[in-house]
Protein 1
Amino acid sequence: MGTRIIPYNNGEILEWRWWAESKLISFQLFASCFLIDGLLIDSNAPGSEMDLQKYVKKLGGKNHISSCFLTHFHEDHAGGSPMLKKEFDIPIYASPLTVPYLSKGYKYRFYRKTYWGRHGQKPIDVEPVDGPIITKSGKYSFELFPMPGHSPDLTAIIDKKNQIAFVGDAIMHKYGYTFGGSSPDLYEDISQIYNSQKSLYKITDGMDDLKIYVAHVGEVNRDFIAEKIKEIENLHKNAHKFQKELINNGYKKQSKILKEIVKKMWRKGELLQFKILSMGEISRTNLVATLLKWPLDN
Ligand SMILES: [Zn+2]
C-alpha cells in the first residue's frame, strides 16, 4: 500500500491518493479523493479504509471534514464512505441516481479485489442531494452536473464563481479501452461520455481559469476536455471507417470485424493481459463495440 497527498490551488485543495501493492499487479493504479474546505469528494477504495481512517483522524475527524460527496457508485470512489460514516459520523451525499447502487453494497471480481480491496463494497446509507453543496466556511458552492457515460449515475460538481470542478471518472487520461463486455454493471457508453464532456465544455465557456479535478489523473484545464473530445471523435470516425472497409471486403461476423478493427486502430492490438485478467470487463474490443453502436451522423 502507498499513500500520497498532493496540494493544489495554493493548498486549498488536497488530493489523497492511495494504491495497493501486490505481486499480482504489473500495472499500478491509484484511487483518489479530494478535499476542499471541509468537503471530501469521493472516499477512495475499500482497501484504503485503514489508511483513510488514520488520515481523517489526523486532520481532526468531523471537525475538519464536515461532509462527503460521492461522484458515482464505483468501489474506488465509494469504498471508504461506510467507514467515514461509522467512525466519524460524516454525512455521505450523492446524486439520487447513485443512492440505490450503494444501499445494499456489492461484490466485484478478482482483479478489482487486487486493486481495490478484498472485501467488496459495503452497504452505505447515502443521502440524496439535488441542490447546491455549500462547503464548511461557505466559501464554495457547488452545483451538481450530471455526466453519465462512464457510469449511469456519474455526477460532477462545479463552483462556477470560483471556477472549480470535480468530475470523478467523467474524463480519462486516454481512451484506449472501456469497461463493458460481460459486465453490464460496469458498461461504459462512449457516446454518452462524449456528450457529457461536450456539455461540460459548453457550460464552462469563458471560464479561462477553470480547474478540473479528475480521479486517476489530477488537475487539468478546459483544453484537456477539448483534447479528449477530439480524441473520441477521431476514434469514432476511424472505427466506422474501418468497419465499412471490412464489410466491403466481405467480412460478415461482428466478432471478427471487432477484432480486425482493434488491430487496425492500435499498433499493439488488444490489451490481452488486461482483457484476460478482467475476464473481458476491460478491453479495446469493448471500446470499438461502443464506438460502433454510436451512429456516425449523431
Ligand atoms: Zn468509476
Note: Residues 222-248 form the longest helix (27 residues).
Protein 2
Amino acid sequence: MCALKITRSILWQLSNYTLLQAQTTTQTIANSIRFYYTVKRKVAKDENYLSKHLYDKIRIKGPITVAEYMKVVLQNPMQGYYMSKDMFGEKGDFVTSPEITQIFGEMLAVWFLNEWQKIGCPKPLQIIELGPGRGTLSSDIVNVFSHFKALHNASLHLVEISPVLSDIQAGTLCLQSSLNNNKNALVYRHGISRHGIPVSWYKQLKDVPEGFTLLLAHEFFDALPIHKFHKTYAGYKEVLIDIDNSEEKEYKFRYVLAKNDTPMLKVLLKSNETRDHVEISADSLLIYEQICQRLASSGGIALICDYGHNGTGTDTFRAFKKHTQVNPLVKPGTADLTADVDFSLIRDIANKTNDVLVFGPAKQKNFLQRIGIEHRVKALAENMEDKKDVEHLNSCYKFLTEESKMGERFKFVALMPATMKKIIDKYPVVGFV
Ligand SMILES: C[S@@+](CC[C@H](N)C(=O)[O-])C[C@H]1O[C@@H](n2cnc3c(N)ncnc32)[C@H](O)[C@@H]1O
C-alpha cells in the first residue's frame, strides 16, 4: 500500500472517533480557544522585577547579548515570562495551532502513525514533546494513538522548564501526577496519562532516556534565545543590550553594537554570510545536535513545526503582548519574546554526520493538505448537525491553512535516521512531496 493510502485509511478509521471529540470541542470552546485548567499557583507580581534585575546585571558587567537578555526575560526562575503564568489563548498573548483545533494534533498523530507503521511500529515507544505549552498537542496525539491501540509499551516524555505550564500539562494529560521531592532528579514530575501510559517531565532533552522515539517540537525553537549580528562597514558586530540613559525614565534599555568581536560572533557566524542582520540560536543548535544523535543511535522520527525561514531571514526578533507586537526592550517579562527559526541550520547539523535525513521545510498549508486535512474536515462536517459547528470547523481549517494566517509562515521539518533511506525511497515521507 502506498504511503498516502495508508494515511487515508488511518484518517477513515479515525473519522467516527474524531466526530465525537470535535462535537464536544466545538460546543465547549469559544472563539477557537480551549481552556482546560486554571492555574492555582500565585506568584507575587512585580512588573519591574526583571527590569531591575537586568538593569543591575548590565550596570555591573556591561551590555549583555540578546541571548542573555532573552534567557533572563523568558526563563528567570522567579518571574521569567514562561515561568509564572499561562500565556495562551484569547486572554493571553498568543494562540498556537494545537489550541485552535484538535484536528491539528490529530493530523500530526496520523502522520506519526503512518511513518511509524512504515518501519514496522518499533517498541518500546517513547513519545517526546519539547515545550508542550498546555499539553494540548500531546493529549490530542495520545488520544489518537490510543484509538489505534498504539500505546502498548509506550511512554510520554515532556521537556518543559515552566513549573506553571507543567501543572497545566499534568491537568490536561493525567488524572494524577506528583512532583519529585529530590531536586537533583532528572524527572521532576511524573504521572500516568488518562490512557494509562507513564508521563515524565524533564528540564532538558538530554535527560530523557535513550530509546526509539517519536519527537515533536511545536513552537518550541522560536522561544529559545538567539544571538543577533549586524553587518557594518567594519564587518559583522554582535548586537548587545545596554541601559539607555538618554531619558530620565527608569529602566530603559537600548541596542548597541559590541566594539570587539564577541566569542559567539567567532563561533556562530558563517564565513560566507552576507545578510545585513543574522540571528542564530546557540541553544537550538545544541538541541538539533541532540535530536540527530538520538535518532541515529536509538532510531526514531522527529517533527519540528515553527515559523521560520530557510537561511534567508534577517531581523525577526520581536515581542508579543495581548496578540499585539510590542517593543522587546520595554517592560521585560510582560511580553513573549520570539525569533523566526532558521531551518537551514537543522540541515547543516544533520549533514555534519550524514546519519540523519532531513525533509522540508514544507509550508503548514502544504503539509496539512498533503496529509489529508481536507478529507478529515469534510468527513467531520458531513456528520455535524449544527450549522454553527460546521462554520466553526471551517474557520479553524482556514486559520490553519490560509497563507495570510498560519498556512505560509509556519513550516514543518522532519528528521529520520539515514538507515531508513531504503524504506523512504520506496515510500516517501508524507507531507513533503
Ligand atoms: C510558544 S510555547 C509553545 C507551546 C506548545 N508547543 C504549543 O504550540 O501550543 C513554548 C513552550 O516551550 C517551553 N519552553 C520555552 N523555553 C524552554 C526551554 N529552554 N526548555 C524547555 N521548555 C521551554 C515553554 O514553557 C512553552 O511550554
Note: The pocket of S-adenosylmethionine is lined by residues 82, 96, 98-99, 131-133, 137, 159-162, 165, 218-220, 223-224 (CB under 6 Å).
